[in-house]
Amino acid sequence: MISSISEMKEVSQSIQKQNLTIGLVPTMGCLHEGHLSLIKRSLESCDKTVVSIFVNPTQFGPNEDLDSYPRPLESDIEKLDEMGVDILFHPSKEEMYPTGYKTFVEIKNITEQLCGKSRPDLFQGVATIVLKLFNIIQPQNAFFGEKDWQQLAVIENLVKDLNLDVAIIRVPLVRESDGLAMSSRNRYLSVQERQSALSLSRTLQKAQDQIRQGITSAKTINNLIQKRLLETEGAKIDYISICDPVNFKEKEQIRGRTLIALAVKIGPSRLIDNCIIEEI
Length: 280
Known about the structure:
alpha/beta, 8 strands, five-stranded parallel beta sheet, Rossmann fold, Pantoate--beta-alanine Ligase, Chain: A,domain 2, 2 domains
């Protein structure tokens, strides 16, 4: 495990001098099968794999779960060892944001909708920490999951706009056997709340079925989703979005490639899920 930026840079430079490729999987820890699918892709395609674990304070708002976010470091290390990960980068908050830190990355136009609308600190914090990790580790490839679709778009724009020499590898969303999207926040849920959380994936499936049957009005599908979620015990809707998957502009008709994205609070957890409707 490496905790200092200077040591991580030295190790990365040594790997580069050997003409070996580095794959980076940035995480906030509390590793689940979704994270492990990213790590597996990196291990399969890169010479060396670096996994970072850092609960990034700049992407949490004042009333969010920064202090209570799960940090089971020992069990995470066991999982990484079992998979054969080469390096764990686990810096402290003081290492990444020393006293006097004042530089942040802002990405416009695609961060004001969906999660960015209700979590205004999120994507500035994400873009900043990801750029820092790219600068420190210098990976050729970085792996991100499509569950956080908007976050992935933010990172892809970061790389394109700032001419960064790293390939962003998209990895499909991973679900539990019952359909619940994998999330570190799932562990907050009680047995009953977890049952309620299944409404997200089941509602998305129902929406897809309706679209296949010829319903293309975004308003009609939105109303269907809203009705089913409001019938779910303990569910509080943050947003329902039926939008373009690149610029996140809302659609009136479901034509062409379309993203349906949900954020719903159940108990203490704010859960997100999505699906892509291909051309119909």
